[in-house]
Input
Amino acid sequence: MGKTYTEEFKNEALKMREEIGRSGTAKRLKISVNTIDKWREAAQAGKIKDEREEKQGNRQKMSEMSEKIKELEKEISRMKKENEFLEEAARFFAVSRQK
Output
């Protein structure tokens, strides 16, 4: 059974790989190049999955926001009609008081 490494160790190894390359990282950390490659592939697969989930979440939020906007527009329309009615009622009572 192989040695297990923490996620933190793997992430640091991948950062090191970007700085000094696969071979240099493998030698310094005393691990195989294949191990580093597997970690990189796993990290990239995770990123792709995260991006897909994020896009799906964004689509859902946009849909929810669109619904909320429609509701608020209806509410604004209703309130404008109520204001018009109240203004007309106020004018009616103002005129009837003057008589």
